[in-house]
TrEMBL record:
InterPro entries: Kinesin-like_fam (IPR027640), Kinesin_motor_CS (IPR019821), Kinesin_motor_dom (IPR001752), Kinesin_motor_dom_sf (IPR036961), Malectin_dom (IPR021720), P-loop_NTPase (IPR027417). GO terms for molecular function: ATP binding; microtubule binding; microtubule motor activity. Residues 1-35, 822-861 are annotated as: Disordered. PROSITE patterns: KINESIN_MOTOR_1 (PS00411), KINESIN_MOTOR_2 (PS50067). Keywords: ATP-binding, Coiled coil, Microtubule, Motor protein, Nucleotide-binding. GO terms for biological process: microtubule-based movement. This is Kinesin-like protein. Signal peptide: none annotated. SMART domains: KISc. The lineage of its organism: Eukaryota, Viridiplantae, Streptophyta, Embryophyta, Tracheophyta.
Length: 861
């Protein structure tokens, strides 16, 4: 070690330590520890005088490490604790046990180390741990001052002093290095840079930095500043020693030299002078070397420091990152928890579902089993069916044949229907295209009470004869198609009219009207009452009934109009609002007349009919104050339109049925009318006589039929004449009071009937009818016969088939028998051959016997 160190012997005297700085003796002025003149000499003396009996085995590297932190020359390092031998009496001015209390030395009366004082700032700390290589005073290293602190020692005599600093890392004893590094400044000069005690000696181990030179000026103070670089500085003990007496005094005679630091002129002897010059040059070289090394090291240090800095920054960043990661981990854990919960729920659901599915699957399996069984059965059935296909095809053929037969029958039915229609028409025609029924009402209570008598004789009513006893003895007889007595009810009256209804459905136009004096029951016959419904309602009822019966073959579309003809004007009784426009009759096509703008109420079924009829009847009443009076002077006309469609052959027909309640036929003279009344009566008379004229023109097959002479006949044009049928109810009163009117009505009716029912036509019609009837009967019988023969043929066919089958069987049996017989024949032939053989053998024997016999006979003879 090149650094000169002061002599280690007799350096401290324990008893001379004064805690009070005022007692401190003042050091020598101008005394410089760096003074080579005495340093060199002391080095030799020191080595000789106090050889270390137990040298510290501290590794050289540690010392080198510590020395690299010393910035000035002079101080030395010891990596072990203070030894008794190092304490040189007389030199020590003060020894402070930093952070601790006073410690006694060998001499019991004096303290070796004074308690901690002279400090500013920082805190004390102690350890109970063992101080390794603690020297003779390990307790010195058990306490320390740490933090930001300064020691200031005042009252010292100006001069040179030595400072010994004692350190130990007693806090961060397990490191790491670099956790505590600090600078030490003496008198504001940095002596130690970034001292890291742990790095040098480790934890709980002493480190001494000795012989730090301090020059005390006129202020008499030494300041030692501890400045942390990393962490807080820490110090265990501070020793202030007075620099030993300058050896220059001893050397003065032998020469002189100049101290480089304090420029004190020191006397040096000449032999020493030479040696010293050598040494100086040697040391200067060494110093240069060391300075360059030091520079390199400090560069390295700063580099290392910056590295440490960046590493620390990196560490901080990593810490931040770690913190973030931890937060993230927490979040993830939370998410994980919730997801675990969800998973648990899902797995629970899954388990439940699994159970359900398992149940469903087993159920399905059962069903499948059952279905399989069913399938097996079905396949068996299918098998059977497949076998039965030949039968099926036969059946199909049979069904086809039946269908064909059915079609044939339909055709025949259709033909028959046409024939029936024709015949029905002929029957109606034979009865007369215009028929007249006479109906007499009963005597009313008023008439009876007024003493009126009945003048009508109904004796021949059943034969259509009616007599009017006029004036007591004279009796006039009339003949009609039918005569109804007052006892005959509505149903009986309608029964005779109903065949005409069928004609409407067959496509013929029909006209039914009631004629007669007012009050004779025209309205009663046609309309009737709610309880006793008349021809109108019953007709429609019948129409719907037949339509329903025929619905499979024909569809009917029925609509109704209700009109009134008054004073040669047409009024629509179904119109909801009165129309200002005059209703007129128009010809739409050949034989088809209609009134444009008239309401045609479509009736779907019988339930709607009564309402419609009532609507018409009620609105008839609206126009007048006196219903009966008005109605007696107007014609009320109900028109039923029937559209039929034959579903079999697609034929469509359109026909009309007029049901007319005529105005009263009473003669003008009797009413004795004038003005409007007269006009009314004239109109009525005109229209009724027009009706009579039309009928008579029709009967006489006149080329001109005067339909247009009145609105009534004009409206009825389609239903009067041609193929149309007409029925007139002539209504009469039985009262003798009305006798003349009755006679007049009967005369009119007889005229109508008489014209039409001419005997020749009737006969012709009857003959024709008879013929057709016979034809019908014949064709019916033929059909029956044919059916019968067909059936018989089928039966025959079946018989023949069964017979053929029987014969086949017989043939088979016979064949079997033939075979049997053949085999029998074979066996018989065989037996015959053997018997023939036997026979020839026997005959041979017989011959032999015969010969023998004859020979014997010869012998006998
Ligand atoms: P018209 O319409 O010809 O003027 P009505 O039909 O109004 O005559 O009949 C006059 C009255 O005679 C009515 O009260 C009616 O009920 C009654 N009446 C008519 N015919 C018969 C009958 N056959 N049986 C019972 N009452 C009848
Ligand atoms: Mg009437």
């Amino acid at each position: 070690r090149a650094t000169p160190s002061p002599p280690s012997s007799s350096r401290i005297a324990g008893g001379e330590i004064h805690p009070d700085p005022t007692h401190l003796s003042r050091g020598m002025e101008g005394d410089d520890p760096m003074d080579f003149t005495w340093t060199a000499g002391w080095e030799a003396a020191c080595v000789d005088a106090s050889p270390d009996p137990d040298p510290d085995p501290a590794p050289q590297e540690a010392e080198a490490e510590a020395e690299s932190m010393i910035l000035v020359s002079g101080p030395r390092v010891a990596v072990s604790g203070l030894r008794r031998a190092d304490c040189r009496a007389g030199e020590c001015v003060l020894f402070v046990n930093a952070g601790g209390c006073a410690i006694q030395g060998d001499h019991p009366s004096a303290n070796l180390f004074s308690s901690d004082s002279f400090f500013q700032g920082g805190e004390s700390i102690e350890t109970s741990e063992n101080i390794v290589q603690g020297g003779d005073y390990p307790s010195l290293y058990s306490s320390a001052r740490y933090g930001d602190f300064t020691y200031r020692f005042d009252g010292l005599a100006p001069g040179d002093y030595y400072l010994d600093l004692h350190f130990a890392e007693i806090v961060h004893t397990a490191g790491p290095t670099g956790i505590r590094s600090f600078d030490v400044l003496v008198q504001q000069d940095k002596i130690l840079s970034q001292l890291d005690v742990f790095k040098v000696v480790g934890g709980n181990r002493p480190l001494q930095v000795l012989d730090i030179r301090a020059f005390v000026g006129s202020n008499g103070a030494i300041t030692i500043d501890f400045k942390g670089v990393r962490g807080n500085p820490m110090v265990c003990g501070i020793c202030i020693r007075k620099s030993p007496a300058t050896p220059a005094a001893k050397l003065g005679t032998r020469g002189s030299g100049l101290c480089k630091k304090c420029l004190t002129d020191v006397e040096i002897s000449s032999p020493i002078q030479k040696r010293t010059a050598k040494l100086i040059s040697k040391y200067e070289k060494q110093i240069e070397e060391l300075t360059s090394q030091c520079n390199i090291k400090s560069d390295e240090c700063s580099m290392a420091w910056s590295l440490v800095e960046s590493t620390n920054q990196e560490l901080d960043r990593l810490k931040m990152e770690l913190h973030q990661k931890l937060v993230q981990t927490d979040n993830f854990e939370q998410v994980l928890d919730t997801q675990t919960d969800q998973l648990r729920k899902v797995s629970q659901n899954y388990e439940n579902d699994k159970k359900l599915w398992a149940a469903a699957i087993s159920n399905l399996e059962r069903k499948i089993k059952a279905m399989k069984q069913e399938q097996a059965l079905l396949s068996l059935e299918a098998h059977d069916c497949a076998h039965a296909i030949p039968d099926l095809s036969k059946m199909i053929e049979a069904v086809r044949a039946l269908v064909a037969q059915c079609d044939d029958l339909k055709m025949k039915y259709h033909e028959e229907m046409a024939k029936r229609k024709k015949l029905h028409n002929i029957v109606q025609e034979t009865k007369g295209n215009i028929r007249v029924f006479c109906r007499c009402r009963p005597l009313s209570k008023v008439e009876t009470s007024s003493g009126y008598k009945c003048v009508v004789d109904f004796d021949g009513a059943n034969d259509g004869d009616i007599g009017i006893i006029n004036g007591g003895t004279a009796k006039k007889t009339f003949k009609f198609d039918r005569v109804y007595t007052p006892k005959d009810d509505q149903a009986e009256v309608y029964a005779d009219a109903s065949p005409l209804v069928t004609s409407v459905l067959d496509g013929y136009n029909v006209c039914i009207f009631a004629y007669g004096q007012t009050g004779t029951g025209k309205t009663f016959t046609m309309e009737g009452t709610e309880r006793n419904r008349g021809v109108n309602y019953r007709t429609l009822e019948e129409l719907f009934k037949i339509a329903e019966e025929r619905k499979d073959t024909v569809t009917y579309n029925i609509s109704v109009s209700v009109l009134e003809v008054y004073n040669e004007q047409i009024r629509d009784l179904l119109a909801t609002s009165p129309s200002s426009k005059k209703l007129e009759i128009k010809q739409a096509g050949e034989g088809s007349h209609h009134v444009p703008g008239i309401v045609e109420a479509k009736v779907e079924d019988i339930n709607e009919v009564w309402d419609v009829l009532q609507t018409g009847s009620n609105s008839r009443a609206v126009g007048s104050n006196n219903v009966n009076e008005h109605s007696s002077r107007s014609h009320c006309m109900l028109c039923i339109m029937v559209r039929a469609k034959n579903l079999i052959n697609g034929d469509c027909t359109r026909s009309k049925l007029w049901l007319v309640d005529l105005a009263g036929s009473e003669r003008l003279a009797k009413t004795d009318a004038q003005g409007d009344r007269l006009k009314e009566a004239q109109n009525i008379n005109r229209s009724l006589s027009a009706l009579g004229d039309v009928i008579s023109a029709l009967a006489s097959r006149s080329s001109h039929i005067p339909y247009r002479n009145s609105k009534l006949t004009h409206l009825l044009q389609d239903s009067l004449g041609g193929d149309s049928k007409a029925l007139m109810f002539v209504q009469i009163s039985p009262s003798d009071n009305d006798a003349s009117e009755t006679l007049s009505s009967l005369n009119f009716a007889s005229r109508v009937r008489g014209i039409e029912l001419g005997p020749a036509k009737k006969q012709v019609d009857t003959a024709e009818l008879q013929k057709v009837k016979q034809m019908l009967e014949r064709s019916k019988q033929e059909a029956k016969l044919k059916e019968e023969s067909l059936r018989k043929l089928e039966e025959n066919c079946q018989n023949l088939e069964s017979k053929a089958k029987g014969k086949e069987q017989l043939y088979k049996n016979l064949q079997d028998k033939v075979k049997e017989l053949e085999s029998q024949l074979d066996s018989k032939t065989h037996s015959q051959i053997t018997s023939e053989k036997q026979q020839s053998q026997l005959s041979g024997k017989l011959k032999e016997k015969e010969e023998a016999c004859t020979a014997l006979q010869h012998k006998v003879t």
